[in-house]
Amino acid sequence: MAKNKLGVHTICTHTGEIKDEQFGGAVSPIYMASSYQYMDVDVKRYPRYFNTPNQEAVGKKIAALENAEMALPFASGMAAISTALFAFLNHGDHIVLQNEIYGGTFNLIVEEFEKMGIDYSFTDGIEANDFEAKIKPNTKVVYIETPSNPLLTITDIKAVADIAKKHGLITMIDNTFASPINQRPLDLGIDISLHSATKYLGGHSDICAGAIAASEVHIERIWQKAKNIGGSLSDFMCYLLERSIKTLAVRVEKHNSNAQEIAEYLEEHTAVTKVYYPGLSNHPKHDIAKAQMHGFGGMLSFELTEEYDVVQFQKELQVIKPSMSLAGVESTMLLPSATSHSLLTPEQRSEVGISDSLLRFSVGIEDVQDIINDVEHALKKAAIALV
Ligand SMILES: *Cc1c(COP(=O)(O)O)cnc(C)c1O
User: How far is residue 64's CA from residue 181's CA, in Å, rounded to a whole number?
Assistant: First the structure.
């Protein structure tokens, strides 16, 4: 398979599009058929076989962006992640996972794997040797997520891929936070790149989808499992996803520059004790991020000092929406201690580094000054009166 010849903006705009032979329309037509002619054709098409025209079209676009031979669209990020894991893990196998991973993936592992006879270990840290330390004779897969949620830790992708290769293991990455614009893990030696396309690929907070990008050989194996599990994406959603990705590169560039500017603003602010953003030179893994990413992304987290009421702060925001999920064009904020990590005690939270004042900030593509003004205004209103 030829490597990228086109630039990412051109790939976003054009790659994979279905030519409208009938009317010469400028965009891919939507083929909603769930039943296709089967005689005298090479491909027997069916939505759950992941091979309808629109599924193939968006798959080609995502593959080109990831510099992968192939990609498949799924009905959700978790459909993609679970299918990939079950394609490479059987009863009696073992997987090594990064300690800090997306909550839904964590739940899948701890709620389902044991009863399926699949053994797992989470690392104690994120250095390459933390992964190697957990490898057992029956290990088959090494799984990473970088930048991580919500603390934006950075794992050295190539270092982990090299260790896994040395042991003959398959590597998977959740590439959702970076998006393929900021990070192309297959170029760094990772086998399988996973996405919640609900996030940056979709980008407008109106699509639930997922994707897997990998070599043809790995996609063939994943496809065998995918058609049995059945997490395929509808053609209408494929169309919307294709439409969304046309602006992915421009959106991500704006997310990157806004987040960088806001991270630097927050860092200087007396109301803020700590900012977590890989684009800041004081981030512990800034150099690795710089080497393996093309941009630092639109996600950051920060903590307020005790002089501010963090719940009141969110209520006073006018542009930024307090909201679950992330990576839309609009700025959103979320308090992990009240949402994703609310089931932990404050002590358990502090063990994993999530203070009760930690805010996760999905920086949107609004004018950056309007976002900063919004934060400034809300901070004034949320200052606890000191007597
Ligand atoms: C949202 C998310 C997922 C899960 O994706 P869904 O589309 O909600 O199934 C997986 N990984 C990361 C990093 C996410 O942010």
Answer: 11
Percent of the chain with pLDDT over 70: 98
**135 Cβ neighbours under 8 A, 6+ residues apart:** 96, 142, 167, 169
Torsion of CA 273, 278, 280, 282, to 10 degrees: 70
Instruction: Report residue 76: phi and psi, to 5°.
Output: -165, 165
Is 208 a pocket residue for ligand 1 (Cβ < 6 Å)?
A: yes
The pLDDT assigned to 346 comes to 86
Query: Is 102 an active-site residue?
Result: yes
Pocket test for ligand 1, best of 76, 175, 176, 229 (most atoms within 8 A of CB): 176
Specify the long-range contacts of residues 32-36, CB closer than 8 Å, at least 24 apart. Answer: 32/235, 32/236
Q: Which is the catalytic residue, given 31, 36, 46, 48?
A: 48
Rounded (5°) CA angle 380-383-384:
160
The DSSP bridge partners found for residue 96 are 121, 142
**H helices present in the chain, as ranges:** 8-14, 53-66, 77-88, 103-108, 128-132, 157-166, 179-182, 216-229, 235-245, 248-268, 286-292, 310-316, 346-351, 368-382
**What is the spatial distance between Cα 81 and Cα 107, in angstroms, rounded to a whole number?**
12
Active site residue 48: yes
Residues 232 and 210 sit within 8 Å (Cβ to Cβ):
no
Average pLDDT over residues 269-280: 97
* Residue recorded with tokens 């010849």: 5
Q: Which amino acid appears at position 384 of this protein?
A: I
Say yes or no: CB of residue 313 within 6 Å of ligand 1: no
Q: Examine the residue annotation and report whether 199 is marked as an active-site residue of this protein.
A: yes
Which pTM value belongs to this model?
0.96
Q: Ligand 1 pocket test: pick from 76, 78, 323, 326 the residue with the most ligand atoms within 8 Å of its Cβ.
A: 78
Query: Would the CB of 198 count as within 6 Å of ligand 1?
Result: yes
pLDDT at 351: 83
